[in-house]
Amino acid sequence: MARANHLGAGLFFVGSVAAMAWATASSAPVARSWMNTSLSPDQRATLVLKAMTQDEKFRLIRADFGQPSQGRAMPPGALTSAGYVPALARLGLPALQETDAGLGVAKADKSGGATSLPSGLATAASFDPQIAYAGGAMIGGEARKKGFNVMLVGGVDLERDPRNGRNFEYAGEDPLLAGTIAGNAVRGVQDQKVIATVKHYALNALETGRNTLSAQIDEPAARESDLLAFEIAIGIGHPGSVMCAYNRFNAVYACENDWLLNTVLKRDWDYPGYVMSDWGAVHSAGKSALAGLDQESAGEVFDPTVYFDQPLRAAIASGAVPQSRVDDMVRRILRSMFAVGVIDQPAKAAPIDFAADGEVALRAEEAGAVLLRNEHGLLPLSGSLKSIALIGGHADKGVLSGGGSSVVYPPAGNAVPGLPPDGWPGPRVYQPSAPLEAISRRLPGKVQFNDGHDVAAAGQLAAHADVAVVFVEQWDAESFDRPNMMLPDNQDALVAAVAKANPHTIVVLENNGPVNMPWLDQTSAVLEAWYPGARGGEAITRLLFGEVAPSGRLPLTWPKDESQLPRPQIPGAGLASIGVPPQGQPADTVDYRIEGADVGYRWFQRQNIEPLFPFGYGLTYTNFGYSKLQAKWENGKLTVAFDVTNRGARDGIDVPQVYLTLPGEKQSRRLAGWSRITLKKVATHHVEIIADPRILAEFDATEKNWRRPGGSYHIQLGHSATSFEGDTSVDLPAATFSARRSHASP
Ligand code: BGC
């Protein structure tokens, strides 16, 4: 029953076509010529296809829900998870066992547990493709050891609103950063012989009304923003699959959107893998098939009917859909199975080394937590403090996770069970990595805890301590958005009271993303820890005590408040079961034409407004300076070179960022590249960054091609998207590229 309300109240359908008995395929033995590994994945897929019966083909193009639901028994052979396609034993094809999701194995029966990475936003904040790869390899490895060979990982919808309940599953607001991070996570997963699934294609940037909401956007804006993030992620990661989204895209459902699936994904990007639907995102048989959908997910539970069975067979019989389209679906699925290795090296149950995997989660959080404020160098904390008050956020028990299909159950169980909501998108899970325990290990006998419910008592405890650390939290989840950026549960009053009582107050945020911080000026330090993952308490402690240098940089713009956003209101946002009742009805459309491709920092630049913290911002315990900036255009490449010097007295990590402005554009700075470097105190390092060529072009809606305008490109070397140390310009010749400029193949 855990997934009964998977689609949110009122939008749930029970399949009217019961799971049909699968007609047994011919038992005639086949010579498995496709097991010849010297053939290409395409050749092998074609050989299997030739040997398949129509029933076998139809069995591959729909996955069942992988767990019992609403009186429907668990499909025999499924592993209690998101999706399942039975093995085709006659052909030697293993079952497809599909598990969520981007932060770890979200196995729904909660048995065994798995290691949770911190939020996708933390990984993105590392600006480190290797951290993303290592996280992907870790969770992909756990998936494989639990018997899964498809992982629904690779969230890359751009952050267009800090209130979107799923931001924590994604990689921020910038297409180059998000695409690079998601693409490397996918690479990590697939190197474990597990198919990854870049999602949710496309513009699934709000949860409110997501099953019908139409994302309105113009073609150039889409191509230069969200679609660019997908294009980059697919180019780097070569995911075996792409998941089409719930929402409509310019009025047409994403999973039956010919332009999104056939034109952009399969033609322009030459994508050879398969498109799977989101769970409950299919609305037709023939239309979806013709538009490019290749596999229906859990239709018997989440769609009004299983479209990719009888209705599609009927469409083929009537000639509305050619048989070749079904063959193409099957060939694509098989091709990904061969390309990723799930047939040659089938997943096998194996023990998991949770200690080693926990280290990967620890490193990701250490690299991705962002130090937002540090007045008078209060941090790092000294080991000689005499007393420290820890307050709120269940810091005595663990660290918070975001909710919904991606939630990862810790092997040791939920550290704070029983918090609302009772059902979907709960449970609210805490990873058992308590900051209290980790900090007490550094300062035995000197740490006192108050749970923060009694604001006055918390203030009193803080008043008598050298330092107060307040943990504040905001539980967000798939299926709803927050109506505003306020911290829930009176936590603003708590922080204000503690900060009033103790001038050395540090705030640690465990949240989905930007919140209002009316108390900011009264605090000494603020650390954005996101949802910190399996070893979050330890990571936060190591950062606070300077055992590692904070090095995360914001992968999104932190607005001062909702009024700065392109759309100050989200009609119908909220979730009654956590005490945030929705006001009004969800809208039918969301107008992304307002900001177009100017997402996040580009919107703030265009509007000439100052956010609270800019994209790319983050402090550390030393500081860095830039010099000798040079840019040159040579052999068709824009190279930006400069020196970075650690000007402080501690070793540290810097993330210098290169932004460029195209000729003729005054208000549209774009991140074109960055570097993440570790530097000893006073050391200098020479850096060269090659601007991503896709950032240098604009999409021409009339000619349907990409154009790099000729002229002078303004280059700025940034500590963030608004703070620069050095600028220069370089002339580039004009060029035109076809819409099919990048050809990705797994
Ligand atoms: C989510 C997907 C998820 C799927 C399977 C859907 O509700 O949108 O991200 O992979 O469920 O659980």
Write the layout of secondary structure elements.
Blueprint lengths: L40 H11 L2 H7 L1 E5 L14 E5 L10 E4 L20 H6 L3 H17 L4 E2 L23 H16 L4 E7 L12 E3 L2 H6 L1 H12 L3 E4 L3 E2 L2 E2 L4 H11 L5 E4 L8 H6 L4 E2 L1 H4 L7 H8 L5 H18 L13 H15 L1 E5 L13 E4 L7 E2 L29 E2 L3 H8 L4 E4 L4 H9 L3 E7 L17 H11 L3 E6 L14 E4 L7 H9 L44 E3 L9 H7 L16 E11 L2 E10 L5 E3 L2 E5 L8 E5 L2 E3 L4 E7 L7 E3 L4 E4 L2 E8 L5 E9 L2 E4 L8
Parallel strand pairs: 1-11, 3-4, 4-5, 5-7, 6-8, 6-20, 7-10, 13-16, 13-17, 17-18, 18-19
Antiparallel strand pairs: 1-2, 2-3, 8-9, 12-19, 14-15, 21-22, 22-27, 23-26, 24-25, 24-30, 28-29, 29-32, 30-31
The protein binds beta-D-glucopyranose.
Beta-D-glucopyranose (BGC) binds next to strand 5.
Features:
alpha/beta; TIM Barrel; Immunoglobulin-like; eight-stranded mixed β-sheet; 32 strands; 20% strand; binds beta-D-glucopyranose
